[in-house]
Task: structure prediction
Amino acid sequence: MKAAEAEVGYTSTNWVPLLKYRDFSLLWTSQAASQLGSAASILAFPLLVLSIHGSAVQAGAVGTVQAVIRAVLQLPAGALTDRWNRRHLMLGCDAGRTALFITLGVAILTGHVSLPLVFAISGAAAILDVLFGPAETAAISQLVPTERVSEAFARNEARSYAASLAGPSLGGFLYSVGRAAPFLFDALSYLVSFISITAIRKPLQHSRTDRSDSSLVSDIREGLKYVAGSPFLRAVIFVATPVNFALTSAQFSVVLTLRENSYPPFLLGMAQGIIAVGGLLGAISAAWIQRRASFRTLLVIAVSALFALLIVSALLTGNFYMVFPLTLGLFLAPAINAALFGRLATTTPDHLQGRVISVVVLSATVVASTAPLAAGLFIERLGSAAAMTVCVAATGLSLISALCLGGLRSPALIAEDSVLGE
Result:
C-alpha cells in the first residue's frame, strides 16, 4: 500500500511528502551532499593557491577560469544531455569528479601539489559540473508527478541556499584541519552522489530516437530555435537578464561599500550571511508561495518589490542597514526560479529539455557574470551610490518587461497556470 501511495500525485485528498518519493529523495539528498562538498572546496581552492606561493591574482584566476569554462560549455552541455543517456552522463561526471579530487588530495598529502595541477583539476571539475547540471535538472520531471515538479525545484532551491550558507564555513574548518581535507570531503560527496544515482530505479528520460545523423551544432541550433520561437521564454529572458545583473551587482556593491566605510571583516561576513538568509527563507517558503499566485503575478510582485527595496538600499548607502532591504528583495527569488524550471520541465518536450534549460540559464546569467567587475568600476569611478543606482535602473528595466511583454500574458500561459495549479 505504501509503495503504491508513493506513486500517487498531489491532490486535495491525498498528499505525500515530496521526499517520500524514493527516487527523487535519492537524487535530492545526493545533490545536497554534492553541493555542500562543492561549496566547501570553492573556498579552499584560493587558499590552496596562496599556500603554494601563488599570488592573489592567481588565487582569483581559479574562479575566473571555472566561470569561463561554464559559460563556454553551457550550450554544448545541454545538447549532450539530450543526446546521451542522462544516468550514464551523471554517473560519469560523478566518477570523474571523485577521481579528480582524490588526486588533488593525495598530491597535497604527498607534497606533490603544484599550481598547474590545481588549475588543471579545477578546470576539469568545472567541465564535469557543467555537463552534470542540465542532466540533473532535466531528470527531475521523471521522478515526481507533473503537478509537483515546481515543488521539487523549490526543494532544490532550498538545498542550494543551505549549501552556500554552510559550505564556506565547513570548508574553512576542514582547511584548518589539513589542506587536503576539503578536497577529500568533496571527493566523498561525489562518491555519495554516484552511489545514490546508481540506486535510482526510474528512467531519467524518455526513450531516445537515433540522433547519429545530427551534429552537435545542429542540436544546439534546434534548442536556440525553440527558445527564440517561444514568446514565454523570450519574455523570461528579457526579465531575468537585467534583474540577475542587478541582484549580483547589488550584493557585491553592498560588501564593497561597507568595506569602504571601514566596517570590520566580521561585519562584512555577517552582511553576506544576512543576505543569503533571505534567499534561504524564501526557498523554504517557495512551494507555499507558488500555490498562491500565477507565474506572471508572482514575477511582477517579486520584481516590483525588489525595485522598491533596492531604492531603499540605495538611500541607505554606506550604512550597515542597506543590507536588510536586499535581504527582503531576495525572499521571492527562489519561488520564481522554482516556478520557471517547473514550467520548463512540464511544458518542454523531454528530448529538448537539456538544450532549452542551457539556453535559458546562459541567456539569463551571462550578463550577471560581469556584475562584480561592473560594480567595482562604478564604485571606483563614480561612488557607491552610483553603483546602487545602476542596480535600481536594471531592476526597473526588468519590471517594465514583466508588465509589458505579451509572452507573460498569453491565454495559453494563463490556462497552463490553471492546470498546473490544480
In short: Residues 1-13, 414-422 have pLDDT under 50 and may be disordered. Residues 97 and 177 are 22 Å apart (CA to CA). The first helix runs from residue 2 to 5. The domain at 220-420 is CATH 1.20.1250.20 (Growth Hormone; Chain: A;).
